[in-house]
Amino acid sequence: MTLVSYEPWALVSRFQRQLERALDARQDGGSVSWIPHVDIHEEAERFVVVADLPGVDGKNIEITAEKGVLTLKGERASEKKSSEDGFERVERAHGSFLRRFTLPESADAEGIK
Fold this sequence. Notes:
The structure is a single chain. This protein is of the alpha+beta class. The protein is 16% helix and 28% strand. It contains one helix and five strands. Strand 1 (38-42) and strand 2 (47-51) form a beta hairpin.
């Protein structure tokens, strides 16, 4: 069981992490076009991270764990769809994405899949 406590500066910390991620993405040679949603939960022997990456080819995803940070990085190609009436609508963002998470000290980077 994981105990969650209230931290008054949590919102400020979260904003700082998002800003750092955006700045890191620019240093990595591009800008972040979209940010995928991620679910994280702890099981008895592992932490599970599930990223919502519809339309992203697996070969366009890079997962690394270095210096206590898990990084999900990749790109989704743009889609072009048109209807019979000539209207075009694509609601999924395309381009690069980057998510970084601080790993707990108990996490083992060797088990990343």
